[in-house]
């Protein structure tokens, strides 16, 4: 029940983030025993680079506490969508925080929103949607792969957020989102190989009062075909963009102060010799400056985000 609301202490069954470092985090379930591959019930011992953790010992511990491992220590944190994205089991490629922040903002997801998502995948984006639309909204998420849909449904149940999400196993490109969702959605998000095939179904799912649309596509050709379909159906404010997160490097640099007095003197061999001798004897003055520069490595391409608005009262056949 870790994702439902803020908590102070770890309870049995909670999903807990075991934080070792920025690049080393693990999501574990706070249960004292687990069943191994042989079907035997054994104590839940979690192995890390800093030794083992007897999971039973963290039940009842306050979130944020430092816990001992057999060869070191770690912190136990309550999961957030951001931490879950970094530790979740990958069933598919996932969307990461820079793109997700733009998606949530552009789709205007807020408490009470009804959002339709396809496909569910590993559930990374789904957790962000659920945090934004709780406690009065609802997420309808679709995946064409039955096993992935079942895994996502079970995951939402274990995280305590199943009341706010309905998981469907369906090929939305051919079958749509279902008549029960026609005119019900405030926003539709697509992460599909051929999003243009699902655009007419997204058009039907959006409310008569209008709504927002987004599609995530790795290739620009997918985005172009999607835009063509959006234009045909009367969407406006269509834009396709790419989010590249870049962190500037800010640090203090020490630089020598250049003495330009010698430029005022006429240039002769004697002047040059005297200037060089003076420079060799005089300690160079330095100053410290706070500088900002681009990182040596720039972020790579993830995908193109295509956004559009469906105006109100567009006739739907």
Automatic annotation (TrEMBL):
Methyltransferase recorded as keyword: yes
Any Pfam family matching the protein: GCD14
Family annotation (InterPro entries): SAM-dependent_MTases_sf, TRM61_C, tRNA_MeTrfase_Gcd14
UniProt EC number: 2.1.1.220
Top-level division of the source organism's lineage: Eukaryota
First-tier enzyme category under EC: transferase
Annotated GO MF terms: tRNA (adenine(58)-N1)-methyltransferase activity
Chief location bin: nucleus
Keyword Protease carried by entry: no
Catalytic activity as recorded in UniProt: adenosine(58) in tRNA + S-adenosyl-L-methionine = N(1)-methyladenosine(58) in tRNA + S-adenosyl-L-homocysteine + H(+); an adenosine in mRNA + S-adenosyl-L-methionine = an N(1)-methyladenosine in mRNA + S-adenosyl-L-homocysteine + H(+)
Subcellular location: Nucleus
Family listed: Belongs to the class I-like SAM-binding methyltransferase superfamily. TRM61 family.
Record text on subunit structure and interactions: Heterotetramer; composed of two copies of TRMT6 and two copies of TRMT61A.
Role of this protein: Catalytic subunit of tRNA (adenine-N(1)-)-methyltransferase, which catalyzes the formation of N(1)-methyladenine at position 58 (m1A58) in initiator methionyl-tRNA. Catalytic subunit of mRNA N(1)-methyltransferase complex, which mediates methylation of adenosine residues at the N(1) position of a small subset of mRNAs: N(1) methylation takes place in tRNA T-loop-like structures of mRNAs and is only present at low stoichiometries.
Xref: PANTHER family: TRNA (ADENINE(58)-N(1))-METHYLTRANSFERASE, TRNA (ADENINE(58)-N(1))-METHYLTRANSFERASE CATALYTIC SUBUNIT TRMT61A
Name by which UniProt lists this protein: tRNA (adenine(58)-N(1))-methyltransferase catalytic subunit TRMT61A
Phylogenetic classification of the source organism: Eukaryota, Metazoa, Ecdysozoa, Arthropoda, Hexapoda
Gene assigned in the entry: Dsim\GD21268
């Amino acid at each position: 029940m870790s994702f439902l609301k803020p908590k102070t202490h770890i309870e049995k069954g909670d999903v807990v983030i075991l934080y070792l470092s920025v690049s080393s985090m693990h999501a574990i379930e706070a249960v004292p025993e687990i069943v191994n591959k042989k079907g035997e019930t054994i104590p839940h011992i979690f192995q890390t680079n800093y030794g083992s953790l007897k999971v039973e010992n963290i039940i009842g511990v306050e979130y944020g506490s430092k816990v001992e491992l057999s060869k070191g220590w770690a912190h136990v944190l309550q999961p957030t969508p951001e931490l879950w994205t970094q530790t979740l089991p990958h069933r598919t490629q996932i969307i990461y925080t820079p793109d997700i922040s733009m998606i949530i903002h552009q789709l205007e997801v807020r408490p009470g929103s009804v959002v339709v998502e396809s496909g569910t995948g590993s559930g990374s984006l789904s957790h962000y949607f659920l945090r934004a639309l709780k406690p009065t909204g609802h997420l309808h998420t679709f995946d064409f792969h039955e096993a992935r849909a079942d895994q996502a449904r079970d995951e939402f149940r274990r995280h305590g957020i199943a009341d706010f999400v309905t998981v469907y196993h369906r090929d939305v490109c051919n079958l749509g989102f279902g008549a029960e969702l026609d005119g019900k959605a405030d926003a539709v998000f697509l992460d599909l190989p051929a999003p243009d095939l699902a655009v007419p179904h997204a058009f039907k799912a959006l409310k008569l009062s209008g709504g927002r649309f987004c599609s995530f596509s790795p290739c620009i050709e997918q985005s172009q075909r999607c835009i063509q379909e959006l234009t045909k159906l009367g969407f406006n404010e269509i834009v396709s963009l790419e989010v590249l997160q870049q962190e500037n490097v800010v640090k203090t640099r020490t630089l020598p102060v250049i003495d330009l007095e010698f430029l005022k003197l006429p240039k002769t061999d004697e002047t040059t010799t005297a200037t060089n001798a003076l420079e060799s004897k005089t300690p160079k003055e330095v100053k410290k400056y706070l500088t900002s520069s681009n990182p040596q490595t720039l972020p790579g391409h993830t995908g193109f985000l295509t956004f559009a608005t469906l105006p109100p009262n567009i006739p739907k056949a």
